[in-house]
Amino acid sequence: MICRQVPVKETHKCVRTEDENGNKMVNEYVRECKIGAGSYGKVVLYRSLVDGQHYAIKAFHKSHLLKLRVAPSETAMTDVLREVHIMKMLHHPNIVNLIEVIDDPDIDHFYMVLEYVEGKWVCEGSGPPGGIGECTARKYLRDIVSGLMYLHAHNIVHGDIKPDNLLVSGNGTVKIGDFSVSQVFEDENDELRRSPGTPVFTAPECWLTYRGRAADTWAVGVTLYCLVLGQYPFLGDTLQDTYDKIVNNPLVLPDDMTPQLKNLLEGLLCKDPIMRLTLEAVAKHTWVIGDDGSIPQYSCWCKRKSLREESNGTKDDSSITHSD
């Protein structure tokens, strides 16, 4: 189900040039500076000459993506096209929005034009953040849960929830980004076999066949642990050591941690995915509610559209996309 009123713009002509100041341009976008790196390409800040707004553009070389094999029958291009396919469906205040895709068959470059989140990551750098306090961690977690519940309701598993993929806007809103390992599942069957995302955020069951939504929830627990305590709950000197600790070591929490937060982390980081807290239960948890009340329910466009069609006795099948 496509859940956005304004579709992603698809551009099949790319003009690479320079402005009068020598700044590189891609169509109407003027390059300003590199701001990061994605899984297979760089992320650059551009300014649009059309609306004056800034955008984060992920740039790839198609030839490189096609040569890089990520699975026996898949290349990195498969991952990028899957990411585009998923992001085309989505529109939510806690998810980075895809604006445009530039794919000119006559050139090797491929571009994803994304909403620019002018702020920071919940974790600056590649390691866990220093403890940010329960109040800020609660605010961030509420946004993460809201965005992730939206994804799961649309049969999408993110697959790599971690601080480095969570951006904080200038007004303090957390947005989930990087859908490069995300997957779409059919109905309630979210059984996955593909290797998960970042090892230290990986649920114990993920090294075998696993349920994607429960694995996302585990990663939320690891992220919350990092935000509050400034360290990882399970980390070894090697990948194998980390895996052994994730599977076998008990969760250790400080004695002075508030009982409600301790209860939440124990539920999120339960090694048994069947017994692990669901996101719906997390949203209703007393620590998450705090003094702010329930997490606001987002009224997504596809649901509003469906209700309008039902009330009018019509159904528009063009809004349905079928994934493989």
TrEMBL record:
GO cellular component: cytoplasm
Broad class of enzyme this protein falls into: transferase
InterPro entries associated with the record: Kinase-like_dom_sf, Prot_kinase_dom, Protein_kinase_ATP_BS, Ser/Thr_kinase_AS
Protein kinase domain location: 29-288
Listed Pfam families: Pkinase
Presence of the UniProt keyword Transmembrane in the record: no
Enzymatic reactions: L-seryl-[protein] + ATP = O-phospho-L-seryl-[protein] + ADP + H(+); L-threonyl-[protein] + ATP = O-phospho-L-threonyl-[protein] + ADP + H(+)
One GO molecular-function entry: ATP binding
Any one biological process term the GO annotation gives: response to virus
Subunit record text: Associates with the SNF1-related protein kinase (SnRK) complex. Interacts with AL1, a geminivirus (TGMV) protein essential for viral replication.
Family that this chain belongs to: Belongs to the protein kinase superfamily.
Function: Activates SnRK1.1/KIN10 and SnRK1.2/KIN11 by phosphorylation of their activation-loop 'Thr-198' and 'Thr-176', respectively. Required for the regulation by SnRK1 kinases of the transcription of a large set of genes, the modification the activity of metabolic enzymes, and the control of various nutrient-responsive cellular developmental processes.
Descriptive protein name: non-specific serine/threonine protein kinase
